[in-house]
């Protein structure tokens, strides 16, 4: 086994396998150039040793070799994860034979070259695979760098949002104290504004923490047998307290017991209903419908008067949507809803009906046997 020189770290490696030493020398002279390292082997086992330790951009295999021939070597390469994607060009002095061609391509060849080989043709073909290998390597490096940056950003978001909660809680506690102790209406109004802003900031922090957990794969879903109807009633009471002008109707049918994470489902329902209240017509009700008549799932629909523009519909569940961010949020609410439901085995959809209503719907798998009709 021979090589032209010790490969540099950024060299592109070519592998030439031929049992004739003179052919290897000729191929080295023909293909070696700055940035391209020609590795050579005189047998299949020698070639496999190189393939296990080096990244190969292209393998040029002589078909007729004693012991392990080029076809057998190619089949072994295709059977190993590390070498499965290495392109193979067969070199042969045998006359053209359809059966041999078929076997070669079946073994994974991208091309056949017949000896005597035209040097310019060989250089041109090799140059294509060298360029493709360099592009893949550059792309892999870029992806790796982006993944490291994303991981760092997500870690920073998690730390930052966690640390923000302490001064935020102190600020809201101060606002509550002013509201209770002060007799001045102006001070009480200012305290109400501080508390309202603090609550909005707290929701943003919670969304950023959930986003960080989702992206890092650390989101936990703690399922427990629960009543979705009772949970939704609690959520609607909280929304009505925060929005006394909101007109929300709850319609329930069937068995609403299932196994789910109550905290996550409360976030899902609260987000969908709050969005409907915020974007719906103020003089028209928001409707929340729970259908527990099916054995395997509970169907949920939240609807309000109004329609979604097609451009908005296409990006409803993407993170940091511009339309949501411009309305005072981060544009993460529906993205988190979709991720929470996916973690429960469900999927949310948004659509606008012909009657001029916007409907968000999902099916929540029960995870529990449905109670009998008796």
What does this structure look like?
The protein has three domains: 2-117, 3-Layer(aba) Sandwich (Rossmann fold); 141-216, Orthogonal Bundle (Helix Hairpins); 224-365, Histidine kinase-like ATPase, C-terminal domain (Heat Shock Protein 90). Residues 1-8, 322-326 and 369-374 have low confidence and may be disordered. The protein has helices at 21-31, 44-53, 70-79, 98-106, 119-181, 185-216, 228-242, 262-279, 310-313, 322-326, 333-343, and strands spanning 2-3, 12-17, 36-41, 56-62, 88-92, 109-114, 224-227, 248-254, 257-260, 286-292, 297-305, 348-352, 357-365. It has a six-stranded mixed sheet, sandwiched between helices. A five-stranded mixed sheet has the order 8-10-11-13-12. A two-stranded antiparallel sheet has the order 7-9. With 374 residues, it is of the alpha/beta class.
């Amino acid at each position: 086994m021979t090589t032209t020189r010790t490969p540099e770290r950024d060299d592109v490696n070519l592998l030439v396998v031929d049992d004739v030493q003179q052919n290897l020398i000729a191929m080295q002279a023909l293909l070696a150039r700055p940035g391209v390292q020609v590795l050579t082997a005189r047998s299949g086992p020698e070639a496999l040793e190189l393939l296990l330790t080096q990244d190969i951009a292209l393998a040029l295999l002589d078909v007729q070799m004693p012991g392990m021939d080029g076809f057998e070597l190619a089949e072994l390469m295709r059977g190993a994860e590390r070498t499965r994607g290495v392109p193979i060009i067969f070199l042969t002095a045998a006359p053209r034979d359809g059966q041999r061609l078929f076997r070669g391509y079946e073994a994974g060849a991208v091309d056949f070259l017949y000896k005597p080989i035209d040097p310019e043709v060989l250089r041109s073909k090799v140059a294509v695979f060298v360029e493709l290998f360099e592009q893949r390597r550059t792309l892999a490096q870029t992806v790796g760098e982006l993944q490291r940056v994303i991981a760092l950003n997500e870690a920073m978001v998690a730390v930052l949002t966690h640390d923000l909660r302490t001064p935020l809680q102190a600020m809201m506690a101060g606002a509550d104290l002013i509201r209770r102790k002060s007799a001045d209406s102006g001070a009480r109004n200012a305290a109400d504004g501080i508390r309202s802003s603090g609550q909005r900031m707290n929701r943003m922090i919670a969304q950023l923490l959930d986003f960080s957990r989702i992206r890092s794969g650390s989101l936990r879903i703690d399922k427990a047998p629960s009543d979705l109807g009772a949970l939704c009633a609690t959520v609607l009471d909280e929304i009505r307290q925060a929005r006394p002008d909101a007109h929300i109707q709850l319609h329930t049918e069937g068995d609403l017991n299932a196994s789910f994470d109550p905290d996550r489902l409360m976030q899902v329902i609260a987000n969908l209903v709050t969005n409907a209240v915020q974007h719906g017509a103020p003089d028209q009700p928001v409707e929340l419908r729970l259908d527990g008549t099916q054995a395997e799932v509970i169907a949920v629909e939240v609807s309000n008067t109004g329609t979604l523009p097609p451009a908005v519909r296409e990006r409803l569940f993407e993170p940091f949507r511009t339309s949501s961010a411009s309305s005072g949020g981060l544009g993460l609410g529906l993205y988190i809803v979709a991720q929470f439901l996916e973690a429960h085995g469900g999927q949310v959809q948004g659509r606008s009906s012909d009657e001029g209503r916007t409907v968000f719907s999902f099916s929540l798998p029960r995870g529990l046997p449905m109670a009998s009709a008796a």
